[in-house]
Amino acid sequence: MPKVGMPSIRKPQLVNATMTVIERVGLHAASIALISREAGVSTGIINHYFGGKHGLLEETMRAILREHSETVMQLLSAIPKHQHQKRIHAIVEANFSDFQASNKVAKTWLAFWSYSMHDSQLHRLQRVNEKRLLSHLTIELKALLPHQQVKQVAQGIAALIDGLWLRGAMNQEGINAQQARALIGDYLELQLAQHALTTR
């Protein structure tokens, strides 16, 4: 976490510089020197406020997660609460927004996932994000499916989001957000259709 007192204008500047450098050279080569040069600040500022590269990566991921959460809530706020299927589509859409699907954010996500497997603090951030996604999906699916199916379908949608996102992030052409949303939409439609058949 950045120390209190850091000028608020510096945080997004450093976060953006971190993502830009990770996109360009990868996480391991993304040194404090390169990041500070990209941001136009001294290395001392990064070390003082973030304690080094690890702290800066953590703050960068927090910024990405905040933006993601805000996008989810913004999209959901525009859809009536009884339109559960549309709200699920909005949750999916937020995961493939222009920002989240951009190359520099995608590569930062990949670096974060890799780091989080061996770092308790970053792992906690990843778990919070995962639980938030499943919670949003579960709330909407409860109105559409019987209790015993809700968790399975929520996990299925989450797995498709992660899988399609990961495959796209590792593809030179990048993430195909439109295709990802269509595939996940097809899965949801299939699950709802199967439930409708069993209740006839």
UniProtKB/TrEMBL annotation:
HAMAP family tied to this protein: HTH_type_BetI (MF_00768)
Protein origin, superkingdom: Bacteria
GO process terms (BP): glycine betaine biosynthetic process from choline; negative regulation of DNA-templated transcription
UniProt-recorded name of the protein: HTH-type transcriptional regulator BetI
Function as written in the Swiss-Prot or TrEMBL entry: Repressor involved in the biosynthesis of the osmoprotectant glycine betaine. It represses transcription of the choline transporter BetT and the genes of BetAB involved in the synthesis of glycine betaine. Repressor involved in choline regulation of the bet genes.
Limits of the HTH tetR-type domain: 8-68
Keywords assigned by UniProt, alphabetized: DNA-binding, Repressor, Transcription, Transcription regulation
Pfam families: TetR_C_6, TetR_N
Associated pathway: Amine and polyamine biosynthesis; betaine biosynthesis via choline pathway [regulation]
Alphabetized InterPro entries for the sequence: BetI_C, DNA-bd_HTH_TetR-type_CS, Homeodomain-like_sf, HTH-type_TetR-like_transc_reg, HTH_TetR, Tet_transcr_reg_TetR-rel_C_sf, Tscrpt_rep_BetI
SUPFAM superfamilies hit by this protein: Homeodomain-like, Tetracyclin repressor-like, C-terminal domain
DNA-binding region: 31-50
Single GO term (MF): transcription cis-regulatory region binding
Keyword Nucleotide-binding (UniProt): no
